Amino acid sequence: MRKGLGILGRLQKTPKWKKVEFDEIEYKAHTVKEILTEMKNISELIIDLAYSVIIFKDQEIAEEVKYLETRMDYLNYEIRMMAMLAARTREDAEQLTGILQIAEAAETISNAAGDIANLVDIGKGKADILPKVLKKADEKIFRIKISPKSSACNKLIGDLAVESETGMHIIAIRRGEFWIYDPGAETMLKAEDTLIVRGTEDGFDELKLFLTGKRRTLE
Amino acid sequence: MRKGLGILGRLQKTPKWKKVEFDEIEYKAHTVKEILTEMKNISELIIDLAYSVIIFKDQEIAEEVKYLETRMDYLNYEIRMMAMLAARTREDAEQLTGILQIAEAAETISNAAGDIANLVDIGKGKADILPKVLKKADEKIFRIKISPKSSACNKLIGDLAVESETGMHIIAIRRGEFWIYDPGAETMLKAEDTLIVRGTEDGFDELKLFLTGKRRTLE
Fold it and tell me: Which terminus of chain B is more exposed, N or C, with fewer CB under 10 A?
């Protein structure tokens, strides 16, 4: 919408621009609303994942934490760029400052979660006591990819009744570069989706048979 | 267990002490395990609450965020004291350093959540756009206190089937100074408990009638 227009050019044009509609700002196919929502979602998810990494010394989930941390850095850069390009009046700038403060806090949270997850790498000395101190109950976070052979492909989570059949709660889905942070009954599962699920070992074993195509139904 | 014994006295005694069992360290009626677990729980809960504060301009939930932030400061102080008093060998110190890094990260998270929630106070300019940008669906976080007249008192959450009857999920309970961060089916509700619940306005209205004693059952 404003590509190729330098900031000086933009500033000269300022008086003619109207108050910014945040829903409509586009910059690399994102809106401010989309980016801030994704930053919020990441900051909520990454903490659970980070603790799970150190409690279960889980290198797979550690990879997802690193992925999310990198994504958060990118989004924070992106949203600052957008804010600078979007501010036209003093009022705009004030509103955008509020948005950038949330973004900053979300990135701080994600970095702190990254620090927690990194403790898994420092080897024997520091990290050994942590699972013992933090472990509770028998719930764990698992990661699993849906096989194209599974009959879960192209089904809705609600129709499969994943949670009532296995006790496993799907907390996020990664589809290539794209994340679904809070999947619900209406979310469709696709072949090659990576699911992040929470529950017991037993529940996971059942779900795994189904998602790898070794069993046709969950019942 | 070690009250009144100065650090120098403690250091002189070091060689005779055995490796610390973290589950057993007591200091003001807490164990390291309890404190770190509570810090982990707070860091997970406070983020959801903080976003809810700015999305719904909710001063009630803002109070709970402040309460949790203060509690986190206290716990971080407490756990540092305990770590210093507990370290006897180089190995102890290394393990305890890992624990303090988690504690530090948990407090960083809580402070960032506090920064988010504080944006609700800065008035018109900055905060007005935030609900519009972050609001999604129709779910909200509510706070409600159980009346001694309610038939919910001394009942288990599972027996009341709160979630299946109203769609409201109880995410935390404050009982005076004491918090229950992840209540389950086996958690008993008490008169004067403050519940933090997530769900729709309609579900909350129903639950409210029950918890204030205006309706005898949830069905």
Answer: C
Full DSSP string of B29-54:
TB-HHHHHHHHHHHHHHHHHHHHHHH
Whether the CB of A180 is below 8 Å from some CB of chain B: the reply is: no
Give the Cα separation of A168 and A203 in Å (integer): 6
Residue of chain A minimizing CA distance to B104: A112
B2: phi then psi, degrees, rounded to nearest 5: -125, 25
Tokens 């976003």 correspond to B51
ipTM: 0.73
Q: What's the pTM value of the predicted model, to 2 decimals?
A: 0.75
pLDDT, one tens digit per residue, over A67-77 is: 999 999 999 99
Of B95, B105, B136, the CB nearest to A37: B136
Summarised one tens digit per residue, pLDDT across range B60-74 is 899 999 999 999 999
Which residues of chain B does A54 touch, with a Cβ-Cβ cutoff of 8 Å? 102
CA distance linking residue A194 with residue A68, whole number of Å: 14
Amino acid present at A198: R
- Amino acid (one-letter) located at B6: G
For residue range A90-123, list pLDDT tens digits in order.
888 888 888 899 999 999 999 999 999 998 876 5
Percent of chain B at pLDDT exceeding 70: 82
CA distance B108 to chain A (A): 7
Contact A110/B at CB under 8 A: no
Question: Do the beta carbons of residue A117 and residue A141 sit within 8 Å?
Answer: no
Q: Do B133 and A22 touch (CB under 8 A)?
A: yes
Phi, psi of A139 (to 5 degrees): -85, 145
Cα–Cα distance for residue pair B38/B46, rounded to 1 Å: 12
